[in-house]
Design a protein that fits this description.
single chain, alpha/beta, Spore Coat Polysaccharide Biosynthesis Protein SpsA, Chain A, 2 domains, five-stranded mixed β-barrel, four-stranded mixed β-sheet, globular
């Protein structure tokens, strides 16, 4: 099986740690490794480095190659201009059609945490076997919900369709994005909804057929780029054509138009968390809701349910600072209420054209 890890995006919700020049997926948010490194290494040993590809922005190619030195350099694909997820997934699919069209591939993202890595690999292996037997299928890997999230996408599934070594696969019904509080609670109470992770397993040939059928103009451009793969002109053709492609999300290009009978869902508890925002990072790492999550030189007194990350050398002290977020970097100190982190992205976007633009 091949694995494609997507490592683009600026990650402004994890500012001030995540910046345009070094987004969140390249920073040491957990332990001493970046989430990109964690995403790649959790696939071992079931996948070899030759099985892995990374899609990123051209400005980050050297960072990826430095952090994943075992990965063959040509398997790091740098988009010369971000054109959203539709072209990004399509490009990698077009390349793999030319590498191994009928070998299962899994699409993954670099800024997530998966605690039960062994079970996660078992699920990927089972999904790969299902796809090998049913090459006209796409399997969505979902997480059983831990709480009624309003910020995540949800996937609705139906009856059990297959089982592989004790892992059940269900029929797919529909996607639901960021429901309101009442709807999220209803999903959470149901046994037929799960968090949609954006992970899926299919064959390059099947997914490429969807591109040709559903977004023919996009597939034509991507096909021209892929035709230059390993010819010595790939970077030249990529830089010429890719910026001209339609800017469209993968959901709008393919998933929303997908025939539901072509899809399956596996919903299990793999300890998944989207750590693209500080509050999500706290939820992923906290031992209990009222416990603090701390990194660096930090001292707390009468502080609860807070996240304090100190990337500086000085001591950071909090007193009676319940439900707060404190992030200290060498050039920025961020302090806010935990439930105000949603305002960070808008704040950083407002730096454009100001004296603080270099901090974005």
């Amino acid at each position: 099986m091949k694995a494609v890890i997507f490592a683009g995006g600026a990650g402004t919700r994890l500012w001030p740690l995540s910046r345009k020049n070094s987004p969140k997926q390249f920073e040491k948010i957990i332990s001493d490794q970046s989430t990109l490194q964690l995403a790649a290494k959790r696939l071992l040993p079931d996948f070899t480095w030759n099985d892995m590809y990374v899609s990123t922005g051209s400005q980050y190619v050297s960072i990826v190659q430095d952090q994943l030195r075992e990965l063959p350099p040509h398997q790091v694909i740098g988009e010369p201009q971000m054109r959203d997820v539709g072209p990004a997934v399509g490009l990698m699919t077009a390349l793999l059609v030319r590498e191994a069209p009928d070998e299962p591939m899994v699409i993954l993202w670099s800024d997530h945490l998966v605690k039960d890595e062994e079970y996660f690999r078992r699920i990927l292996a089972a999904s790969g076997r299902i796809v090998e037997k049913n090459p006209d299928k796409i399997v969505f890997v979902a997480q059983k919900p831990r709480f009624p999230s309003e910020n995540l996408g949800w996937i609705q599934y139906g009856k059990r369709a297959f089982e592989d070594q004790g892992i059940p696969f269900y029929s797919f019904i529909d996607f639901h994005y960021r429901p309101d509080k009442q709807t999220a609670e209803r999903y959470f109470q149901s046994s037929h909804y799960a968090w949609n992770l954006g992970y899926f397993v299919t064959t390059p040939r099947f997914l490429w057929k969807q591109y040709e059928l559903l977004v023919p103009n996009l597939s034509q451009g991507l096909g021209r780029i892929a035709d230059s793969w390993k010819t010595g002109r790939f970077l030249e053709v990529l830089q010429e054509i890719y910026p001209t492609l339609e800017k469209i999300h993968f959901d709008n290009a393919v998933l929303e138009k997908l025939n539901p009978t072509d899809a399956l869902v596996v919903s299990e508890n793999i300890g998944w968390s989207d750590i693209g925002a500080w509050e999500a990072l706290k939820e992923a790492l906290q031992e209990a809701k009222d416990k603090n999550v701390i990194q660096g030189n930090v001292l707390t007194t009468d502080t609860r349910d807070s996240l304090i990350y100190n990337y500086g050398k000085q001591l950071v002290v909090t007193i009676d600072g319940s439900e707060i977020l404190v992030v200290v970097t060498p050039d920025v100190v961020l302090v806010c209420k935990k439930d105000s982190v949603g305002k960070i992205k808008k704040l950083v976007e407002g730096f454009a054209g100001t004296e603080h633009e270099h901090l974005a």
